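Design review, sub-item: ligand-bound model
Attendees: FS, YL, KQ
YL presented the inputs for the zinc ion complex:
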Amino acid sequence: MEKKRIERFKKQLLERRQELLKSIAQTQEEGRAMQHSYGPDEGDRANSSLDKELLFQQTTHARGLLGGIDAALTRIADGTFGQCMVCEEEIGAKRLEALPWTRYCISCQESSEKNR
Ligand SMILES: [Zn+2]
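KQ shared the predicted structure:
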């Protein structure tokens, strides 16, 4: 892949990474604030654990994405970025633009989803 293109993806990935880190910190902040805002009431406690569950899911999702982004940055450093990790074909440009952290080309992704 052209160096210029890689640089662009790298910038995009780093920006996304910053956003994610911010949103994870924000979610943690919300979780802390929440613990103070609920009273001893039974219903409140139920709501509180539901909200906490939701926050937890958001954080898990964000962390998963963050891991994917870090892996993509490692692949940029290794020079394997943009390559499918299964068939080693180059991942389609459009797919890479939309999901720069993706590890698989569209056909490998589809076949892995079918096997699930
Ligand atoms: Zn593939």
